[in-house]
Design goal:
- By secondary structure, this protein is mainly α.
- The chain has a domain of 39 residues: Monooxygenase, CATH 1.20.1280.
- It contains 9 helices and no strands.
- Helix 6 crosses helix 7.
């Protein structure tokens, strides 16, 4: 009777059974590989681009992979995203330029900083420079609370 007690046992049996360690992007059409990458969030997409040269080439070569994340950022940073896209910047560049700002702005607008009493309470929290328009939106949100 064969003992199959751990996940590694199952994995090693699968490899012996003929599964190859080949990269999916080498065996699938590039459209399918890009469809897989399109399901990743922006930080995961950036990490995937660092995995190997082939993945980097696939990810960097398809600007539409960055569109979904960029549209999510636009929900918080509409003016910034529209400005960048109006200037002809790619989806990727627009996303990279506005991603952290959108996270910080989303936290401010959600009231996560409403009860801060000192600068020490902000230590360890994500921060970045915000323009006057963003601060205006934050101030309006705070006044409505």
């Amino acid at each position: 009777m064969e003992r199959r007690s751990t996940c590694t046992d199952d994995l090693s049996l699968g490899v012996k059974g003929g599964l190859s360690g080949q990269d999916f992007s080498e065996t699938l059409p590039w459209e399918v590989s890009q469809s897989i990458f399109a399901r990743l969030d922006p930080p995961s997409l950036c990490c995937a681009a660092l995995t190997c040269q082939r993945w980097r080439s696939l990810i960097q070569g398809c600007d539409l992979l960055w569109r979904g994340g960029c549209l999510e950022v636009r929900a918080v940073c509409q003016r910034e995203v529209d400005r960048d896209r109006g200037e002809g910047l790619s989806w990727k560049v627009t996303l990279v330029r506005n991603y952290v700002v959108s996270l910080v702005k989303r936290d401010w607008l959600a009231g996560r900083y409403s009860s801060v009493r000192s600068a020490e309470e902000l230590l360890g929290r994500r921060m970045c420079p915000l323009d006057v328009h963003a601060w205006g939106e934050i101030l309006e949100a705070e006044l409505q609370r």
